[in-house]
Amino acid sequence: MKVQDIVNKLQLKVCSGEKGLQRIVEGGYTSDLLSDVMGNADENQLWVTLQTHKNIMAIASLKELAAIVLVKGYEPEANTAEQSNEEGIPILSSELEAFELTGKLFELLKKGD
């Protein structure tokens, strides 16, 4: 499944990194602790977090994540969005809480729609 498919199915807002919307998503990881994501997230996963600062892009780039999804309507800081655009790693936003969004993502990816 591609990032764009998930955006469409879950009605996510694309905040930045539009050129990466065709990236393949192979799973997901939910955490707000950067060291946890750095140690446990896998390549091509979608990262669900409420963090909005530039360090999330460093982790996403290092781990080669497919995209970042911010919860509770959060949007990235300006310098974070700028780096997202440069690297082509999308930052998306959802109005949902992390728990609910993670469940929806899990079901969507499990189905493979």
Describe the secondary structure blueprint for this structure.
Layout: H1 3-10, E1 13-16, E2 27-30, H2 34-40, E3 45-49, H3 55-63, E4 67-70, H4 78-87, E5 91-93, H5 98-111
Parallel strand pairs: 2-3, 3-4, 4-5
Antiparallel strand pairs: 1-5
Helix pairs in contact: 3-4
CATH architectural arrangement: 3-Layer(aba) Sandwich
Kindly report how far apart the N and C termini lie: 7 Å
Give the C-alpha Rg. 12 Å
Order of helices and strands: HEEHEHEHEH
Q: What form results from the Cα inertia axes?
A: globular
**Order of strands side by side in the largest beta sheet?**
1-5-4-3-2
Total E-strand runs = 5
Taken together, the total number of domains comes to 1
Structural class: alpha/beta
Q: Mean pLDDT, rounded to whole units?
A: 97
DSSP strand content? 15-25%
Number of helices: 5
Report on this structure:
By secondary structure, the protein is α/β, with parallel strands linked by helices. The protein has one domain: Udp-n-acetylmuramoylalanyl-d-glutamate--2,6- Diaminopimelate Ligase, Chain: A, domain 1 (3-Layer(aba) Sandwich), CATH 3.40.1390.20. Helices cover 42% and strands 18% of the residues. The protein has five helices and five strands. The protein has helices spanning 3-10, 34-40, 55-63, 78-87, 98-111, and strands at 13-16, 27-30, 45-49, 67-70, 91-93. A five-stranded mixed sheet has the order 1-5-4-3-2. β3, α3 (55-63) and β4 form a beta-alpha-beta unit. It is globular and about 35 Å long.
